[in-house]
Each structure stands twice: as structure tokens, then as C-alpha cells.
Amino acid sequence: MKKDTGASAVKRLEPDENIGLTAEQVRERIQGGLANTPVKPPSKSIGAIIASNVFTYFNFIFTVIAVLLVIAGSVRDLTFLPVIIVNTLIGIVQEIRSKRLLDKMTVLNSPTAKVIRDGQQQSIPSEKLVADDIVIFKAGDQIPADAVVVSGKASANEALLTGEADEIVKEKGAELMSGSFIVSGSCKARLTKVGAESYISQLTLQAKKVKKGEQSEMIRSLNKIVKIAGFIILPLGSLQFYHMYVTKSMDYTQSVRSTMASVIGMIPEGLFLLASVTLAISAMRLARQKVLVHNMKCIETLARTDVLCVDKTGTITENTMQVTGVECVGDISEEKVFSLLSDFASEQSADNITMAAMKQYFTSPTGAKIVSHTDFSSEFKYSSVTFEKKAYVLGAPEWVLRDEYEKYREKIEIDSRKGYRVLAFAEYDGKPDGKALKESSAPLALVLITNPVRKTAPQTFKFFADEGVNVKVISGDNPITVSEVAKQAGIENAEKYVDASTLTTDEAIYEAMKNYTVFGRVTPDQKRKFVKALQAQGRVVAMTGDGVNDILALKDADCSIAMASGSDAAVQAAQLVLLDSDFAHMTDVVMEGRQVVNNMERSGSLFLVKNIFSILLSVITLIFGVVYPLTPSQVTLISMFTIGIPAFLLSQVPDHYLIKGHFMRNVIVKALPGAVTDVVMVLAMVYFGKIFNVSTGEITTASTILMSVVGIMVLRQVSKPLSVYKWAVIVLCISGLTLSFRALGWVFGTTTLSTKTLLLCINFGIMADTFIRFISFLLKGGETMIFHLSHKNAKQSEKAVKT
């Protein structure tokens, strides 16, 4: 019978703290998979990334086209290849960059650990630890795996995981979370969960998991366009070749060239390239504004965001605290309280921003002899100092004052509503030991602490309010205090607050996200649930964060923003990083996103003119038995000066207007008039060219000219409102086309036109302007009618619901 060497077959032990595991027990755990082996990131290899970008459906189509053109001896028609190669390279570079960023993300930085084995203390690499090892932890150590304290006493800081910067006393039986730090004392602990089972490994795996699905509406729309084109290409291309080679008995070379021209015209090969280049340039511009972009697509997503989740500290307020005053409540002078608090603060360590503020404000210690002190306990909400004769405690009023709290509740809540964090300072009858206070406390004073609101906060939040973006403030602080700070920052509906500790079900969270703006006492796990609840309501969610505890919520949000002053893991997990931790830069990102989307709608419509035209013309030529009147090189010429160059130049024009409608619909509506006009004018040219016995070469050249003229008309239309820069772009493209026709005809397969062909061309060019205006008028009227009908139906549905 085969022996089970899995983890389930290994008997778990509780070894003596002074002896630890034996060498045999360690070996047994390594063989059973109970070693602290680092988790591997769930990402593709570089080879897989290259393969997935090279071996695509469209690259296959273009390779086939290239091979057929080479076989046909038409090498000059391969002018489309550089765009395809560059597009593929950009895709590879972007994906490898994202992979390296995720692989580099690290939450755990504990290279070695002191372990007791066979009664001997030794230092070993953390990945060599095994379950049930006895490990010695002292101040400064990071916990490499989940453990339970077996002896000693230490204070741990779990801010990396929970977001709370307070020290937690850990004694025998207490759990140590992997990823937390020992800040004082020392202890021995037995490892309970190692490797992939530890808390920090599970968090890391989820943080590095690549989000499925495309977040950017613009890229989703481009993908749809590509899929539709991909579905149409093969059948239409095959029928075109059959029609020309078999039905029309054309020679192989001409049949291949005409077929490839129709196929190339159907593929929006430059759209993704333009989107990538435009986003890359936007990322460079944002870098000058001290915004680092990890995922370029999030620039657009943030511009479409309608809910923004922010933290209080570091986002609305400065990442510091300051004492704003002391209110004496006992029979004691202000001078005496100031001296006591100065002595108190001098004994404490400035390991969190609250105590740092205390030490900065109370700076006149008397030098009184201090017997002992306890650091702040997040469990019991106080810190203490014991002098020779008396002991004093400082902390949350509810915990310090206990039975006396009701006497001061009204005053404390009034201060909280002013945005202050209130701490109670009291004389304690017993000897505080960091555990729950049991003896009576005599209140002496209330210490008022505040986070100063950022000077730019009101202006920033007004901008988002004006743009229709709802702001949700999510904080671990008292909801009353957070609400007041939110009011000072000018956040709409800041008076609508809730204590998140009362939201115990998913249903309660779902409803709360609809009805409240401020959420206090929020746990790290709730942040992720808040994001999912908003997304379930159809909202596009952006979230800010700065700690490891924010990573999963950041990963789930549609757009994630981290402050550079936060943890490295949060910075690496976020899509955007504010390098100077100034939230005011968010307006720059939104404006940049609008410029990208609005300009890509213009540019996308230019590309779609060619695609829609090619599909329609291919279908019509098949139905009526007409030869496709263009060559691949001529399609490239048209694309270069009426699509590629102007699309790129227009994508850099400032355009900060509010994004309206859906990307796909907007692009199609702008492209249809030009595409239909192209089809009608080219078919008219082919038809009348046959009547007047115009040669095939002249018909293809005239068709190319007509498409160029219509392309310039479309370019003029999408460039509105026109400016000097936009006129310069139009003139540049006209000049480029003129030069290409006159000097580079041998490259693009154009010929000199006879007088009758030239007259036909001028005639249809004049008609094109009227025709494109007529089609635009029809589309606008139809769109208005559809809008009114849908608006009327929506009102009727709303009325029916109310009834």
C-alpha cells in the first residue's frame, strides 16, 4: 500500500519550547508539504506572453495575406506590415511590464528567522521553516508565517494587515499574523500555518491574481469591432477571390490583390496601435503631474467613474495629526495637566501619528520618576504611565472613563461633531498593565486631536460633485468625526453617516451603499464588500488606499489609486500612484481620461469609415458582379493620410468635455455618413467609368481620389470645433495626399487621369459633400427619434412601477 506523504499524513505537534522539533520531524514536514515555501505568482511566463500576442487570429490573417501577396509578386502591397509588427510589440511590452510589476509585489520581507531545533538555537532562511517550528521573535522582526505565542510577551503592530497602527500585546496563547511586526518585547511562538496556507500567502496570491475581463469601455468596444471584423473576413474574402478568379476569370495576381485590398480594409489594424500610443503619451503627461500609471487603461476608466471611495486620513486630510487643545474637566489647573501630559508623552514611543502629535504638542516634561508604562492597546483602547505615587491613562473616552462616560458624553460628542478625535486623560486608582481597566478613573482632561483637512480637498471634491461622481468616505474612525471632516472638505451628503460595525450582512451593506456617504469603524474585509456592493448596483468604482489591508479592495475596484506614502504592496497593486500623495492630482487624471476618450471617438470614427466601407463594398461587388476597385497599397495610402496620421495628431488635442454616451455607438454614428458616401461615390465611379470606357487603372486611381476626398470631409467633420491646429492637420493631410499621387504613384499603384476621368472625379467629389450632409441629417433625425421613444418608454415604465 502506497504511503501517504501529503500534509494530512503528518502528525501535528506542540514541541517543548526549549527543544523544538527534531531533524527527523523537520524532514517529515518538508516531505509532507508543510514547509514555508513562498507562493508562486499565478502569472504567465514571458514565453507564453510572447506567444499569446504573436499567435493571434488577426496576425494569422495578415500572415496569410502577406504570403499570398508575395506569391502573387505584389511585394509593394505589403505596406500594412509595419503597423502589425509595432502593434504586436506594444502588446508584448505592456503585458510583460504588468507581469513584472505583479511578480515584484512583496508583502513579506523576512529573509531569516531564529528557530529552536534539537534544543539548539539557529538562524535559517524563512523559507526553510516548517509547521510546528519554535521560532524566537524580538523587536523589529516580521512574522514569516502564522503562529501562536507559547511563552514571553511582545507587542505587535498589525498595521500592514489591518490598517490600525496601534500596538497589540501578545502573550501566551495569542495569535501572531504573518506579515505583522514585533515592535517591543520578545516571545517564542509555534508556527501553525506555513507556505501557501498562511494568511500573508493567501493575501499575496489574491493580490497577484490577474483580474479577468476588460475594465475599459473603449477597449471593450474596440475588441467587439475586431471580433465582428474577424467573423466577416474569411467568408467575404473567400467569396471575393472566387468571384474574381473563377467567375470573372481574372489572373491570379490581380485576383489576390483585389481580394487582399478588401480584406485589409475590413481590419481596424491601426485602432489598437493608436489607442496604445495615445494612452502611453497620456501616461507620460501624467508622470509630469507626479502621477505614476501602472495600467494605462485605467486613465479612461477613471474618467468614466461615477463612485469614488476615499479614506479620511491621507486623502481628505493630511497624513499627520495635531493636538488642537486640552479641556480640563477635573479640579486641576491647565498648567498641571500640561506638565502631566508632557511627562506622559515623553515616556511613550512615537510609533503612530496620534502619539507623535502628543509628543510634538506636550514638550515640557518635569523629569518626574516613572516606574512603568504600557503602549497603546488597540484591544483595550488606552496607554498608561505609572509614576511613584500615581498612575495615569490616556485613550478612548468610552474605555477610560467607563461608568463616568455618560457624564461627559454630550461634551465629547459635540467635540466629535466638530471633527476632533477626543482622548480622555484620567488618574487611575490601580496599576495599569495593558489589560482591561477595572479600577475607577478620575477624569482630568479631554485632549482634542485633529487631522488638518488638505487645502485642496474642497476644490477637488467640488470638481467630482460637479461631474456627477458620488464620493463615499470609508474610515476606521468614529463615524461622527469622519462625517464632520467630510463636511469640512465639502463632500456632498456628508451628514449621512453610519457605523459599519452595525452592517453585519451583505444585504445591509448593499442598502447602506445606496443610502449613506460616510462609513466609520470599517474593517478591511468590509472595504472589499463595499466595492462589490457598488459594482452590483451597476456603478463604476474607483478606490483609494495605502495599506496592505486595502489591496484586495483595490484589486476589485474598477480603478485603484494608491498614495506613494503607503505600503509598497499597495503601491504595486494599484493602477495609479500619486507620487506626492496629493489627492488633488485626481482631477488631472480625469481630464486626461476625457481627452483620451473624446479624441479616440474622433479617431475611431476615422478608422471605422474604412472598415464599414470595405465590408459594404465587398458585399455589393459580390451581389452585382463588380470587380473590387482598389489595391492593398491604395487602401494603405488612404488610411495613412485620412486615418492614421490625422487620428494620431487629433488624439493629442486638449478635450476635457464630459464624456457622453457609449463609445461604440458614438463612433459608429460618426463613421456611417462617410462610409456610405464612400460606397456610393466609388460605385458611381465604377459604373460611369464603364459607360465612358475608362481603363481599370484609372478607375482604381479615381476611386482612391474620391475616397481621399470623402476622408478629408469626414476629418473636417470630426475635428469640429475647428482650430488653427486642426486646420493645420487637415492641410498637412491634403498636402501629403497630393504629393503621394504626384510623386509616389509607382509606390501606391496610381496613374495619371485622362480629362474625362478627371471630370467624373470632380463631379462625384462635389456630389459627395451634399450626400454626406444628407446622410448625417438622416442619422441625426433617427437618433433623436429613438431617444424620444426610449425616454417615453422609460417614463411609462417608471409610472407603472410607482402605480
Offer a few descriptive terms.
53% helix, 803 residues, disordered C terminus, disordered N terminus, elongated, alpha/beta, 8-stranded mixed sheet, 28 helices, 7-stranded antiparallel sheet
Class by SSE composition: alpha/beta
Strand order of the largest sheet: 8-21-20-19-9-16-18-17
Alpha-carbon Rg, integer: 35 Å
The global form is elongated
Into which percentage range does the β-strand content fall?
Answer: 15-25%
What is the residue-mean pLDDT, rounded to a whole number? 82
Compute the separation of the termini in Å: 72 Å
What is the number of helices? 28
Low-confidence stretches: 1-6, 786-791, 797-803
* Number of DSSP strand runs: 21
Helix % is 40-55%
How is the biggest beta sheet arranged? 8 strands, mixed
